[in-house]
Amino acid sequence: MVCHIARKIDSPFDTVLQRTKDALKAEGLEVVSELDLKSIPAGSLGGREAPRSGEVSGDFAHTGARRLIMAQDETGVLLPCNIIIRQTEDGVEVSAIDPEEELSRIENGRSAELAKPVRDKLQSAFAAI
């Protein structure tokens, strides 16, 4: 079972990071925070060095999250708000949870249907990176 949307890009990490933010913005998905995983102290990682990686958090409230939460309060814990950008051996991977797949677990009959516009926006943004 594939539970995420991903794309590998053959470009420098910083270029992919900026293109990701621009593509999300173009889809109306606002970036509300970023976490540079390289900034985590090595001691917190058991002495290992953090990978070249970052996390972008998006605010998807205007794409259906409010409707999802109104349909069932607990839906908020499943919302797809994180996009991970990481350096791999063969490029930079951008990935996010698949909202339709994740929200299909909620048995209220509406969650998967309400998640589709969010998934469509993420796929469109990923295609534009």
UniProtKB/TrEMBL annotation:
CDD domains: DUF302. Gene3D superfamilies: TT1751-like domain (3.30.310.70). It comes from the Bacteria. Residues 65-99 form the DUF302 domain. This is Uncharacterized protein (DUF302 family). It comes from Breoghania corrubedonensis.
